[in-house]
Each structure stands twice: as C-alpha cells, then as structure tokens.
Design goal:
This protein has 799 residues and is α/β, with parallel strands linked by helices. It has 29 helices and 31 strands. It has four domains: 237 residues, Dna Topoisomerase Vi A Subunit, Chain: A, domain 2, CATH 3.40.1360; 105 residues, no CATH class; 247 residues, 3-Layer(aba) Sandwich (Rossmann fold), CATH 3.40.50; 82 residues.
Length: 799
C-alpha cells in the first residue's frame, strides 16, 4: 500500500511537479476540521498566494480516493490560485493564462508560461453572497429572499469576484497583457459546451471590467496524437493543460500561444449564442451590463466567422462573412429605426434572431462594431476591380461570393476576398462560373475575335452606320472594363435620339450584360441626388431621358462630370451624417452614360470628353413612309445570341485577354494622341487590332467627332469653323485675322447673323481668349498676340 508521501509524489509527478513547486504541505487535523475532510482519507494542502507571491490565509486540500477530490474551508469565498513564482514569470511575458486547477497552473508556470487557476470553470465569481447587516431575510418553500436596506445602490454584482481576480484584471490593464483562457478539452468531443459556456461568460465579465476585447483570448487544446485511434474505455478523455505539456515540448505550446496572439480575434465564443440571446431578451428588464454582454457575444461570433471592416474614406462600415464570402455594408439604424430590410439586417436576423425591435441591443452592437478592436481598413470594389492602375488585368464580379480575373494568360475564378480583393454584395446578379469558363473556351479558337458589338449596333437605328458604329463597337469592348486601367479616362457615353428610337433599350442591353440589373436612373433634380446615385454604382451608370431645365444645375453637373472623368482618384465629397464640419470622400467607380432627345450639354469641356451616338427613328423607310417596327424581345434576343449573360461575359473576357496580349507587345508609353482623354486613343487603336482591323483612321476620326460635337452644340464655335473654312479658301495662308473680320463675315451669313457672340467684336474677343486652346487645337485659329493694339490670329492647320 502506498504511503501518503508516495501518493503525493505520484499525484504531482503526473503534472511534472514536485512539492516545492507549489509549497505543498501534508494534510493535518486543523485543515481536516476546517474543510470537513474525513480522518480516514489521505491528502495534502495547497496553499494560496497573491499575484505578487505573498502568502494568503486561504488553502484548498487535495484528497486521495475520495469524491469530491478538492475541498476548502467552509463558508470561504472563491480565490484565484497564483503559483508562488507567477509574478516573476508574468513580468517578462506579454500574456498571462488562466486555467482550471492549481496543478495545471503550477505546471505551466514552471514551464515558463505565467498561468493562474480557478478552482472550477465557474469559480471566477463567489457563490457566497455578502449582504449588508440590516438586510431582511425571508424563507420560502424552496428559496430565501433578501430585502436590502434602502441605501443599497444595487444588486447587480452582489456576488462579487473571486478573491484575486480583480488584482489580475488590474495587472493586465496596467501592463497591457493579453489574458488567455485555457480550459480543459475532451479528446473525444473537443471542448464541452458547458465548459465553453463558462469560458465565454468569464470573458464577457472581463470585458465589462475593462480588459480590451482583442486582449481577451482563448486557446482550445488540440489532441496531441491525432493518429492514436479510439480512446480506451478505461482512459480519462479529459485533456488538461498539464497533460498537454507532459506529452509535448514547451516549444509546441509556445507555438499555440503565438498563433492565438496573431489571430485577428480569439475571444471565447458562446456555444449556443442564439439560445442565449432569445432567453435573455425574453426578460422584461435587462441591465446595462447584460445588454453589453449580449452585444459582445454577437461580436465574438461575428469575428469568429468573418472580419469587421471600415472604410474611413467613405465613413462606412462593412462585414465580410467567411461562410458566404459576402461583403455586407453594415446598417444598424435607419431613419425608421429598423435596418431589417438591409442585407446586413437580414443577416443579423437569420443568424441571431434580432431585429430593429431589439433597439437597445442593436444600439450597443452598432457602437461596439467600430469601437472594439480588431477592425480593419477596406476599400471595397463594385463590379470591376483593379488593385493597381498599371496591372494588365481585370477582376470582374461574378456574384456576391466569386470573381474572375482575366489577363494575357487567360481567366481564373477566385472566391471573394482572395488576393486582397473584396467586392461589395448586391452589385450584380449571380453568374454560373462553370458556364462562363465553358463559353470562354468555346470562343477561344483563333487569333482574332469577331466584333459582336458591331453586329449588335448594325441592328440599331444609327444615323451613321460607318464610323460611328465602328467607334462605338470598340468603345463598348473597353468601357467600363478598362476603367482607370493605366490611368485611362473613359468618355461620357451620350445616346441622343427622338422618342422611340431605341436609346433606352440599347443601354438596358449593356446593363443586362454587365450587372444583370437593367435599371436606368432618373434625371437628377439636384447635385446631391446625382452624387448619391453614382456613389452606389459600379461599372456603368446610365441616366435616362436627361432634361435639365435648370441652367445652374446643368452647369454644375457638367463641371462635376468633367472633374470626375479627369481626376486621378475620382471621388465626391459629402458632409458626414449628423455633423456640420466633417466630410467623407466617396470614390467613384463607374463610367457615365446618358440618353436624351436632344443634346443636354453645350459646355465644350464636357463635349471634348464625350462620345455621342446619334439614333434616328426614321432610318427605316418603306415607300417613302416611316415604317418603324418595335420588337419587344430585341434586348433578350441580342442577349441570347451569345448564350445569355454568361456567354457575353465570356466574350468580353476573351476580348480583354487578346487586348492584354497586344499591350504586352505594342503598347507605346510615349504615344502622342490627338484626343485629350488619357490613353483613350491608343487603346482604341489597339482594340481595333484585336478584331483584325486597321485602326489608323481612328485618331483623325475622333478629332473630327469632337469638332462636330462642338459645332453642333456651340453656335459660336460653328460660326468660327465656317469662317476658318472660308478663310482657307479665299485668304492667303499668312494673313492675320482680327475679331472684326469674323464679325463682318458672320453678319453677312444668314446662319449666324443673329448670333450675338459672333456679331459683337468685344464679346467675340472674350470668347476667343477664353477658348484659346480649344480654338487653336480644333480649328487652327492661333493667337499671335497684339498688333496695333489689336489681338490678331493666324490660321495654322493642325498637324
């Protein structure tokens, strides 16, 4: 039979300990009397120490061959166990651990990991309640009620913390230590639900008492030998920290800790969070602490299954869900105090069963969502993405959870969030990636590609079926796919034509291909409406039937479009909600298109940044009479010509693949363009080559289109062009011209005699100075300074 000493040594050796590691002493009669331990049972005394290593007037006894194994003095409160050398080890460490059981804490601390312990997973709070002296107790059948004196402030924390836990909290706060919970695991089921619930409850209280959310972490001990097979029936499946350390090396546990600290969040999750929320919310009066803890429970579950994100530029928060791979714009409270209609509101309801009716909980969750670390910075994309302007590739959003990358090598499908790219949800209708890949491979058969957009536009009522159709077909293969590629500035697409000419249907076809959503935007009533519309759009933004009666709005809208098109980092500025002096800069990631019956803008700056597509309803004639036929299925028929959206997207990806191959061979960084939009002209020329066409005519055509657009919309410019044509025909090339010469010409022309700008020399002179560069580059009318106190001009044909 083993002696008490032998049993002690054997018991401690299982944890790699000796008696001096814990200052253990034999169990004597006084301790037996205080704890109620039987005299026939052997055991030993575990003395307790403060965090700083001083002796405490508290102890627990370990009994051999007895249930329960551990006992403590009657009516004594719970204490936190600190091994004698805990403080010395903890000073040098960025973390401390808390576990269950004194031997586990002593074994870990001896191995160099500062660890304290609780007597049980729930022993961090006292079950012995201390009441004021003048409390009134009333005994009922199954319970005792206590009426506290009127001067008592409250009962929320009447049970109090285990002795020493507040010292641990203060120590962690003062020295910025991570507190890692490491409870026992079970080899067969992992960590038990009851144990995990206790870990989460402890973590909630630690956060309430001040330890930062991302400084509270949990390690779940993995099985040491995964290939050992089933656990023998006579073996205890429990795996404690001391067991784990005995079967491994300290370096392996340090690796577990390092991985835990490197995680964005390792806050203990509640094992039945939906049940916890429902049970708590059924109570009529929740305390502030309880609501906060419910919110923290949700937050820890969100962090375990995704990432909280914020775009400080936009002043918007997001949540990326690892399960669905969706990036959700977070909305907690809207004007009607109910965000349940938003995708994130629906997500919260489906996962946690909460809605706008749970106002107090939602309010706390909104505050903690951004207030608790970790929260990461994000710049989300919509429909089309590019990490760097010079990357010769395009990332296109196939659905909320997947995207496809195309470059000169081909295409590849990725999950949302891979390669540092996050697409915002609710931007496109989902596509089948397998179909896209299949169509792509079927189309990828030869060195050149058929220009399908040219075929589509041949079935559109275009006024010009030659140059305009070819240029527009090339543009549709580029826009919006190459938006800001190598800093390229894509033009405004203006579709002009009378009612019924097919403007809206053509734009709907493009939207149906790019996003699947064919909604056209209304003409804005003010600039804020337009800003709100474009800031939430990716790919292509189409404004239908633009009619701007307000001249002030027309001018401001024109200026904004010009600024956004040519700005290196296009954005809009808006005042932040609920503030007067804070601004948010919202990036713009869309190409602008509009339809109108007549040209809505006359500004030269905007017209130089535009491609105008003229539609003519009367192009279909039979016997001299208009015979316009309306095909209600035209858009769907054109969509199905390539197999629906998947076929069209595959086609667009193939065009881009061939384009990037040409770029690698023929891109000229020193290309001299006639068109003012950066890299637009050279891209058009290369895109023509993708289809096996000669694009050498494009630069001249684009320059002529700009002149025509300006002449059609600007009466003064049209008159100047007529004068230049006249002067080239009848005057010598070296002649100097003055404003009076142009006025004299205009007054003799029926088309211009009523144009006040052309018939007033002073006003014409100001126009020529204001538009000096435009007039010189487009018409060749170059300012040559003053002669005889008059501004003179000379006609120099553009090169």
């Amino acid at each position: 039979m083993l002696t008490n000493t032998s049993k002690l040594e054997l018991d401690l050796s299982k944890s790699g300990l000796v008696a001096s590691d814990m200052a253990i002493r034999p169990l004597s009669s006084p301790e037996r009397a205080m704890t109620g331990a039987p005299h026939s049972v052997d055991g030993y005394v575990i003395p307790y120490f403060t965090l700083y290593g001083r002796s405490e007037p508290f102890y627990r006894v370990r009994l051999f061959d007895h249930v329960p194994k551990y006992k403590q003095p009657k009516d004594s409160p719970s204490h936190v166990y600190f091994p004698p050398n805990f403080f010395v080890t903890a000073k040098k460490s960025p973390y401390v651990l808390i576990t269950e059981g004194e031997k586990k804490a002593a074994a870990a601390t001896k191995a160099g990991f500062p660890t304290c312990a609780l007597g049980g997973v729930d022993a961090w709070r006292n079950r012995t309640v201390t009441l004021p002296v003048d409390s009134e107790l009333t005994q009922h059948k199954n319970k005792v009620s206590a009426k506290l004196p009127s001067h008592t402030e409250g009962t929320e924390d009447i049970s109090g913390l285990a002795i020493g836990l507040q010292d641990l909290i203060d120590f962690c706060l003062k020295h910025k230590k991570h507190l890692i919970i490491c409870y026992d695991s079970d080899l067969d089921v992992g960590i038990k639900a009851s144990v995990q619930r206790a870990a989460a409850t402890l973590a909630f209280d630690l956060r309430f008492r001040g330890i930062p959310f991302n400084y509270i972490r949990q390690i779940i001990l993995p099985p040491v030998n995964l290939e050992a097979g089933p656990i023998p029936k006579d073996q205890d499946p429990k795996l404690g920290l001391d067991d784990w350390l005995m079967q491994t090396k300290p370096e392996q546990f340090q690796e577990l800790i390092t991985k835990c600290l490197q995680k964005r969040s390792a806050f203990p999750r509640h094992p039945a969070i939906r049940d916890l929320i429902n049970r708590k919310l059924q109570r009529p009066n929740l305390s502030r602490k309880e609501v906060q803890q419910l919110s923290i429970a949700i937050l820890s579950d969100l962090d375990a299954n995704g990432i909280r994100l914020v775009s400080t530029v936009e002043g918007q928060t997001y949540y990326f869900d690892f399960v669905t791979r969706k990036l959700l714009k977070t909305t907690f409270i809207e004007r009607n105090n109910d965000a349940s209609g938003s995708p994130f509101g629906q997500f919260l309801y489906r996962r946690y069963g909460i809605s706008g009716a749970d106002k107090f909980l939602i309010t706390w969750l909104a505050a903690q969502f951004t207030g608790e670390d970790p929260i990461e910075e994000v710049s989300p994309h919509r429909v089309i993405a590019r990490l760097k302007p010079n990357d010769d590739c395009v990332h296109y959003q196939l659905s909320d959870s997947q995207y496809v990358k195309v470059d000169k090598s081909g295409i590849e499908v990725y999950d949302n969030g891979e390669n540092g790219i996050l697409f915002e949800s609710e931007q496109v209708l989902p596509l089948d990636p397998e179909k896209v890949i299949r169509y792509y491979n079927e189309l990828d058969t030869g060195p050149t590609v058929v220009n399908q957009w040219s075929n589509v536009l041949s079935r559109v009522r275009l006024r010009d079926q030659n140059g305009q159709r070819k240029v527009t077909a090339l543009l549709y293969c580029m826009s919006p796919w190459l938006y800001r590629w190598r800093g390229m500035q894509l033009p405004v697409e203006m579709v002009i034509g009378e009612s019924g000419s097919g403007k809206s249907t053509l734009c709907e076809l493009r939207l149906a291909i790019i996003t699947g959503d064919t909604r056209l935007r209304n003409s804005p009533t003010d600039l804020k409406d337009w800003h709100a519309s474009i800031s939430n759009t990716g790919g292509l933004h189409v404004t239908d039937n633009v009619q701007l009666v307000d001249r002030s709005l027309r001018q401001r809208l024109s200026d904004e479009i010009c600024r956004i098109i040519t700005e290196p980092n296009p954005h809009i500025e808006q005042r932040k909600y609920y503030t007067n002096n804070e601004l948010v800069r919202i990036p713009i990631r869309a190409v602008f298109a509009l339809t109108a019956i007549s040209q809505p803008f006359q500004n030269a700056d905007l017209l130089q940044r535009s491609i105008v597509l003229d539609l003519d309803k009367s192009t279909s004639l039979e016997g001299g009479r208009a015979a316009v036929m309306y095909d209600s299925e035209w858009r769907q028929a054109e969509l199905q010509r390539l197999g629906g959206r998947e076929g069209w997207i595959a086609y667009q990806l193939l065009v881009l693949n061939r384009f990037f191959k040409l770029v690698a061979e023929k891109w000229d960084p020193k290309y001299q363009a006639k068109h003012r939009l950066i890299n637009f002209e050279q891209t058009m020329v290369l895109m023509a080559e993708v289809f096996g066409e000669d694009g050498s005519w494009i630069p001249t055509y684009l320059a002529g289109v700009v002149d025509k657009n300006l002449a059609d919309s600007d009466w003064t410019f049209e008159g100047l062009k007529a004068y230049v044509d006249y002067a080239n025909k009848y005057h010598k090339p070296d002649k100097f011209h003055v404003a009076g010469d142009i006025v004299e010409f205009a007054m003799g022309q029926e088309d211009f005699e009523k144009c006040e700008m052309l018939t007033n020399a002073r006003r014409l002179g100001r126009y020529l100075q204001t538009h000096k560069s435009l007039v010189a580059s487009s018409l060749g009318l170059v300012d040559k300074g003053q002669r005889n106190n008059r501004q003179v001009y000379q006609i120099v044909p553009p090169k």
